[in-house]
Amino acid sequence: RLAPGGLRVAEAVLDPPDFPHVDLVSTALQSQDLLGLVEAVSRRAASYAKRWEAFAALPARYEPLWQPSSSSLRIITDVATNLTVSVDIPHDWPWPAAGALKPAPIRVLAADGIPYHRREGLAAMSAELAADAAKSGGDNQGGLTAQLAALETKLFVYAHRCRNDCEGNGVCDTGVFPPVCRCHVGYSNDDCSWVGCPNDCLGRGACDKMQICRHDGETGETSCVGGTGKCSCQAPYFGADCSLRPCDKNYIVNERNVDVTLGVEHFRSLYESMGWTLATVRLSATNGDPPPKGSIPGDQFSVAASEKGVAFIVFASSEHAMAARAADPYYRDAVPSRGIAERARFFPDELRALEQRERHLLALFGKAQAECSGHGACDYGAGECFCAARFFGAACEYTYCARDCAGHGRCDFVTGECACERNYVSDQFAGCTLRRLFLASTTCEDAAMDRRVDAGGRRLLPLHLSCMMGVPLGANAFSGHCPEANALTGDRGDCYTTFPAYVSELANAAAVTAAAVTAQPGQPIQVCADCSGFAARNISQLHLYVEEPCRSVFGNRIVECVEGRTNSDVVRGLGMLPSGDPARPTQIT
């Protein structure tokens, strides 16, 4: 249809519309080339007639679906699970377009079911078909059926391509569909892109498997981190595969916000308020750090660098110490990379820095960083201490007492010392040993330790005066048995005794008929203890005062006392003057 005036084509209609022609009409209306329109329509009609013949000749297995007015064709292939492919066949096919020497190539539009790299695969298959068309001769690659067969071959390759080609870290198993990567040792994920950690960190940490890359649009640079294959272990584990753990400790050392001016009791009460029992608390006004480089020794900057308080806390048990470590920010936050996969590369250095810092601070208190309190060996695989003899506890922090205090005391396992019963003293080898009673025999010692008394306050087992002099009961005490020599001649003579002055208040004729008594006001009474083996007076005297026992020369006491001697409670017994006052029994040492 021409426009009014007959000089311009206004509209063109193709009847019947059996093939796409809108583009041809649009071009003709713009160019006003009626002869060109007729030629183009004739060429396309011939092309589509040939195309329909080729479509009709396709094998039935393709189940081709096409529309006469469309350039697309959809077929079902034998690839994998009968993948569906849609292709675009140029309008001029199977002949070259106007001005071309060879037919235009077929373009792949879609391939439903390709599991990975679909867009890349479609572009690659289209490019390969175009290359085939460029190489082909006038036979047009053998016709449409031959081209679709070639397409199936290419589709098989791309449909059985593993994700990211397994990153070169595995083998693509095409025996299954979708294909699966069989990763080499040390790699994981569906494309083998994850670097495996040793033993997968045993479930005790985060594995830095994946490399994360960020592209900077401004600079065009791409930076990548991660994918180191290292473990960032959860507390308290460490090691390449988080298989190790430290043994328990019975102390903490802290330099965070420690004000030493508050004193030891402040820190003791602070930790004890949390339910923990402390053994010792020590403070240091300095952390021992060297002055900063370039600072002047003694100026405020160099001094301030080390003027930071440090607390060293030893707990009564390792259980309390480990609970304090878990709650103390100094230990809890010292390794920020714990359990974070992308920071696994920092984990070993952060853990090592904490250990080195603890050793530095312990040195301020003269302590070494020793596993198991220095009393055993640590099995890092189990995190348990194997304690040396005499030591026990999770950190070998407790000490057995020697011979379990020999049955005569209670063991303080923190110090390893015995709190012994009366008449026993602590000994590092024997536990609790009988204190020196300076008595003549074990019979005398047994009697001295037996403190049973009757209703009247009298000993059930009396202690004889002869026990004090080192002679058998009833025997005379002559020169060799006296504790002191004659001050004039140096010879040891017969022994005599001197009783405290208050004895004179109880003395009477009936009580001392066998004793030679000389009493003067304010002076001790000398009593002959002949019934215990002492028959004669000697210048050397055994004082029975309540005070610390000392020797005397000519009746005068000197400051030369025997250490360790204590008073023995002596009441009625053979060879000694009885006391009638239970509140003031006669004392003898």
Structural class: alpha+beta
What percent of the residues sit in helical stretches (DSSP H or I)? 10-25%
Coarse morphology: elongated
Please report the number of helical segments: 11
Number of strands: 30
Largest sheet: 4 strands, antiparallel
Estimate what percentage of residues fall within beta strands: 15-25%
Rg (CA only): 54 Å
Q: What do the pLDDT scores average to?
A: 75
Low confidence ranges:
471-487, 492-553, 555-581, 584-589
Widest sheet: strand ordering = 1-2-3-4
Distance between the termini: 150 Å
Your description of this structure?
By secondary structure, the protein is α+β, with helices and mostly antiparallel strands. 21% of the residues lie in helices and 20% in strands. It has 11 helices and 30 strands. It has a 4-stranded antiparallel β-sheet with strand order 1-2-3-4. The chain has a 3-stranded antiparallel β-sheet with strand order 13-15-14, with helices on both faces. A 3-stranded mixed β-sheet has the order 25-24-26, with no helix packed on it. The longest helix is centred in the first third of the chain and has 23 residues, at 34-56. The termini are far apart. Residues 471-487, 492-553, 555-581 and 584-589 have low confidence and may be disordered.
